[in-house]
Design goal:
mainly alpha, Pantoate--beta-alanine Ligase, Chain: A,domain 2, two-stranded antiparallel sheet, two-stranded antiparallel ribbon, 2 helices, 4 strands, 8% strand, rod-shaped
Length: 147
């Protein structure tokens, strides 16, 4: 604000009541700390949920891989007229490879290791391929009776 003096010169006034920053009105340090803690809690819950979702999706993809290989082995056995329990030398090469059921053996998304069942057509209810994480992270289908 400008004030005029008696001689007509304009001088800027400095008021003793100039506004000063006193923080946010009504927000104390304790309230601010509570807000920050609540935000940290929500972030923790979000990250925990995302981690659980990732484990669940890895498990589902691994079980789908097991089912796909199992169907490929069953498909080869049906096309060749083979019965469960019969031995086929080089069974993996007849199922996995160029122009086969699988171009290459799938990989476990949770970095488990797949183990193949050898050269025998598995009997109904048992898997041809297993994952090393089947016990610790549940990478095992619940029901395989009709596989």
């Amino acid at each position: 604000m400008k004030n005029a003096t008696r001689d007509g010169a304009v001088v800027a006034s400095t008021s003793a009541r100039s506004p000063r920053f006193r923080g946010l009105p009504g927000l104390t340090l304790i309230e601010l700390s509570i807000v920050i803690l609540a935000l940290l809690l929500f972030a923790t819950l979000l990250l925990t949920g995302a981690r659980a979702w990732k484990r669940g999706s890895d498990r589902a993809i691994c079980i789908a891989n097991l089912a796909g290989v199992q169907k490929a082995v069953r498909g080869y056995a049906n096309m060749s007229g083979l019965n469960p329990g019969e031995t086929v030398p080089g069974l993996e090469a007849k199922v996995v490879g160029p122009d086969r059921f699988f171009e290459s053996l799938p990989a476990c998304p949770a970095e488990g290791i797949y183990t193949l069942g050898g050269d025998d057509i598995p009997p109904l209810g048992s898997l041809y391929m297993s994952c090393s994480l089947e016990g610790s992270l549940g990478h095992l289908p619940e029901q395989v009776a009709d596989w």
